[in-house]
Design goal:
Elements: E1 2-10, H1 15-30, E2 35-41, E3 58-65, H2 68-75, H3 78-87, E4 91-99
């Protein structure tokens, strides 16, 4: 299994629009062969901010894929290309961590 932690930071004040676009694309991703989990997360409410907090412009996508080949196919899927083009102007930065169990 492959795990992905993708940290997406929107341009100031644009996280809601970026999350909306994520939600619109999510069903297509979940329908991909090998996709086990694909969901957006934000800092938990009620937890005091800390150095580890992501803040109001960032969200984290938690993904699980059956194999690396499935993840690689996801990266070049037509709906992902369209999503990237649609959201390009909203994104400040992306950090994508690809991990495997030990």
């Amino acid at each position: 299994m492959i795990h992905v932690v993708a940290v997406l930071t929107a341009k100031s004040g644009q996280r809601a629009k970026l999350l909306e676009a994520f939600a619109e694309n999510r069903a297509a991703v979940l329908a991909e062969e090998g996709c086990i989990e694909y969901g957006a997360t934000i800092d938990a409410q009620g937890v005091p901010p800390s150095k580890a907090s992501f803040g109001p412009d960032t969200f984290v996508v938690i993904e699980k894929w059956e194999t690396l080949a499935h993840l690689q196919a996801h990266a070049v899927a037509p709906h992902m290309k369209a999503h990237g083009e649609k959201t390009r102007e909203l994104v400040e930065s992306k950090l994508i961590h690809v991990l495997e169990p030990v």
